[in-house]
Amino acid sequence: MYTKSDLKADLAAMGLQGNETVIIHSSLKSIGDVENRADGILDALEEFFAPGLLIFPSMTYSTVNAKQPVYSVRDTPCCVSMLPELFRRRPGVIRSLHPTHAVAAIGKDAAEFVSGHEKFDSPAHPDSPWGKIYKRNGYIMFVGTGTIHCNTFLHGVEEWLPVPCMLTDYHEPLVVFDYDGKRIEVPSRRHVGSHSKWYNLLQPTFREAGILKEGKFGDAKVFLLEARKAGDIVYELLKKEPLFFTDEYQASKGVTDWH
Q1: What SS3 state is found at 234?
Q2: What pLDDT shows up at residue 165?
Q3: What is the pTM of this model?
């Protein structure tokens, strides 16, 4: 059974100091048997990153839509995995107000980090939290996900360029209720396509650039990616090949397997 000290030692072994901005994509079951279970995992992360900023995706893209258009920052559950759902309910955690691609954060400047997400009609505007990860020179950590394919930050890079047909050309009439119960109308576009399944193709590139480290967290294999340098690499790639992350482009190159 892993203790909080064990998990914090795993983070330090990857060269982390605790003062970083880190967003974590995770698989709870991959971490193994931990003292106090999920709470023990989240306690370890909060304690380690107390001088920095700890973020989890808190997204609702599969449940908030034109047919069910209401997102309540307090009540609407995450659709991504168990740890983010438990994290966003914790004391002191602040969740952003975007109706489909919210994040939840605790630590240094958390309120500023999540603020204003509802002002944008797309999930990952450069001034949204997904863009702030880049501006703060943060890290993206993948805990037990197998690869780096679940990487909403790279959707953001595609959006910023912008990649052709990356966003729907229509808006869904979505509604947000903030922490005070105030109703906010947020007409929203969505990302189009299954681009993320091709993100794994860049793992060798990121590794060769020295911006992708591997480690462990309990039983889970961890990838730790430097967001700004990864974003710059992907931005330059997409300037040359805007459709790189599409099925059609990869098929034209004879690539059929993204693993």
Answers
A1: helix
A2: 85
A3: 0.96
